[in-house]
Amino acid sequence: MSTQEPISPLCDLTTGDYDEILALWQRAGLSVRPEGRDGPAAFAQQMASGRQRIVGLRVGPTLVAVIVLTHDGRKGWINRLAVDPAYRRRGLARALIAEAERWFTEELDLEVWAALIEGYNHDSQALFDRLGYRRHDIVYVSKRTRPEA
Ligand SMILES: CC(C)(COP(=O)(O)OP(=O)(O)OC[C@H]1O[C@@H](n2cnc3c(N)ncnc32)[C@H](O)[C@@H]1OP(=O)(O)O)[C@@H](O)C(=O)NCCC(=O)NCCS
Q1: What is the pLDDT of residue 148?
Q2: What is the CATH number of the domain that holds 57?
Q3: Residue 109: which of 75, 63, 145 has the closest Cα?
Q4: 126 is in which domain, residue-wise?
Q5: Is 86 helix (H, G, I), strand (E, B) or coil?
Q6: What pLDDT sits at residue 63?
Q7: 121 Cβ closer than 6 Å to some ligand 1 atom
Q8: Does 5 fall in a domain?
């Protein structure tokens, strides 16, 4: 894969793309839970729920950027955004987030969309700052059925 090859238009991904999506998440250094909510069975269930959409960008056949969009009926959520290290700072994340915002507003009529970003992830915080997202002083708490969920 040459970094000079053109980026293909946005495409919707399916459960059949799972292995490639997981490989990209790992290549991008994203912390994911392949034994839990990012595993193949959970992934298939989420896709079947109708509340999840996965959008990607390819160079040739290779997936180089991905975003998982979900909604809970109140808010749109941006999850598991990842761009291949060889393709960063070219506006790929910006393009995926623009599609997220279009989907949330134009198709789902949602007025709020959000993302959770780890405190140490300054790259992602810079991205969302740049795109006009407001930071909140919120403590994220969670409870789970098993540690790897
Ligand atoms: C965060 C990430 C998704 C950004 O993807 P990207 O395609 O490089 O981002 P874009 O090129 O669309 O950036 C748009 C703007 O956001 C800001 N930005 C993005 N990455 C930045 C960085 N590392 N440092 C500072 N600003 C940054 C810039 O203003 C940039 O515009 P510019 O390049 O014209 O200055 C990518 O670095 C990544 O995959 N990181 C690892 C996985 C991750 O952290 N995902 C997010 C989990 S919440």
Answers
A1: 93
A2: 3.40.630.30
A3: 75
A4: 11-130
A5: helix
A6: 98
A7: yes
A8: no
Tell me the C-alpha distance between 103 and 10, whole Å.
13
Sheet holding 52-59, edge to edge: 11-13, 52-59, 62-71, 76-83, 113-115
How many angstroms separate the Cα of 63 from the Cα of each of 28, 49, 66, 93?
Answer: 12, 24, 8, 13
Q: Answer whether residue 141 is part of any domain.
A: no
Residue of 67, 87, 120, 124 with the most ligand 1 atoms within 8 Å of its CB, for mutation = 124
Domain count, the chain: 1
For residues 107-112, average pLDDT: 97
Are 110 and 75 in contact, with CB atoms under 8 Å apart? yes
Ligand 1 centre to CA of 122 (Å) is 9
The model's pTM: 0.97
